[in-house]
Amino acid sequence: MAQGNRREIAWLYAQLPQLVSQGVLSEESARALRDHYGELPQSLGQRLLMIILAVLGAALIGGGVILVLAHNWDDLSRPTRTVLSVLPLLIAQGLTLYAFAKQPQSTAWRESTALFQALMIGAAISLVAQTYNISGDFQGFMRTWMLLALPLVYLRSSTLVAMFYLGAFVMWSFSGLPHYQEERLWSWQYWPLYLAVLPHYVMEFRRDALSWNSAALGYVSFAALALTSYVVLERSLSVWILFYSGLLVALYALDHLALPEGGSIGARPLAIIGRLGAAIFVFVLSFRDVWSELVGRWGSSQDVALRWAWEAGVPTGLVLILAIVGGVLVWTRCVRADRVLLVFPLVALAAYFLSARENGYDVAAVLINGYGFIWSVTTIVRGLNQARWGATNRGLILLSALVLARFFDSEFSLIARGLAFVALGVGCLTVNYFLWRKTRPAAATPMQEVQ
Amino acid sequence: MKRSFLFALLILAALAQLAAPGWMIWTHERVLLQGRVFKLKTAPVDPYDAFRGRYVQLSYEQETVKWMPGDWKSGEPVYVQLTEGTDGFATVTKLSREKLPGDVAFVATLLWVGNRSATDEIRLQFPFDRFYVEESKAPRIEQDYREHSSRKTQDAYVTVRIHDGTAVIENLYVDHTPIVEYIKAHKK
Known about the structure:
heterodimer; A: mainly alpha; B: alpha+beta; five-stranded antiparallel β-sheet; four-stranded antiparallel β-sheet; 3 helices
């Protein structure tokens, strides 16, 4: 039963006694209604709490056992230590098998045993490493850990292990950063490691696109991608500029294509990450320095671009194609402000290639600023027309950020900067005041959608 | 059918998970049981850097060696051959890209190659640079290790065993006593 449904049934049940006492419904009808909808299902919150408690309990017991053993660690013989190092993992595996055989219906059992097992893999490896004084290659350790935990994502269809995997993936990516370009021999592993966990998200998404599982996984998957892809993209001719513009818009278009209407905005991670990410990214690209740094790389790094084609060029091309095709497919369904978002990859492409020309970085920065201005203004206009607080203020924030950044970029006097602050503040308050005036008559009904 | 297949896959995954620590245990245990033992003097340490969390960061005098002719590149792995000196401590006597016979050589990283003259030095990084200790004993061990590997008194060393190109630390000694026992005997 979907969560929205549950809330409505709970509301109905709360109303029933009153309706009966007022004579709107007869006792019988009320009972018939209860029979029809049945018991109120356990809420997501309750189930989640159970899962968290189960996982926490498992982790605490595991950690506690290790701590107790470690108390006399040095006095134990090496074979004893070795056995004790692997024991928690063996216990965790036993619990998973028990859950598989005896508790096939229980989400709490499935998720908590799988996560516990995933965590104990790392514990076993590190304890053995300590026993034999093995020096750490942190990145290699993370990779081994992730790969050994990965089967649990699919065999136990465990969302928590998938999230653990993505968290470990972020750590793995960043731990490779200190290596310089020539030494980043690991970068080819980036995409296979990321793509390995994505099918689980696709399966959850197809089962129920608006479920808690899908939404949470969506946020973690794409946040992890957006956070880390810079690590493999930055070195090759700054194609990250194109990659991110394509990725964020592709996510936004995918939300329109794949998700059914309805559901709360929070259940649409693709739309949120796409739109919020694009706004942040437009702001980043609005700085002239981003483009002038890129210019320094043109011409000097052709061979680098070639060498990095597989890690950076191919994914960038793919997301750009996805973004453009997706944009065309959803174009007619979008309002004007969102259409402006859909053309972002084209604007980024134009700016990218314009920046290669002489003094092109100024042109590129102006182009992006103009684009940001149009996007924020169309968003504000849409928000005002349809009386939407969310859209209005989203537009206002982007517009203010762009204007303020330009004031700090350029050499304006303190007075000019101060006046700009005041003007923007007055603008924000005025727009919100008008919106309030406009929506006041409807204020008695709760806001249906904050968008 | 599908369930038993899933069950088999789960067992396979569990075995793979056990194989990782199992492989670590097997390779290192084999070295400790069959390897030849060498004594290596630790290098004077920067006292503020010696101890990190639950392990002692070790470095060795023999990680810096005189120039040996060869087409060495920084960052590449090399076989390092140890020979026992008259004082009982091991010295590096040969570097090689190919595996060396006998349990006398292990793989280390060439950290830095100078300007390739006879007066120059080569910096190596041995793969065994950590000695794990129990947390409660950590402060004492740190202090003792510092006192015994400062530039004035330097009698800290480790024993390593080498077998088939792999080296594993056996113990850390201070004043010719294993560090854990040294601490027990010198309880303050």
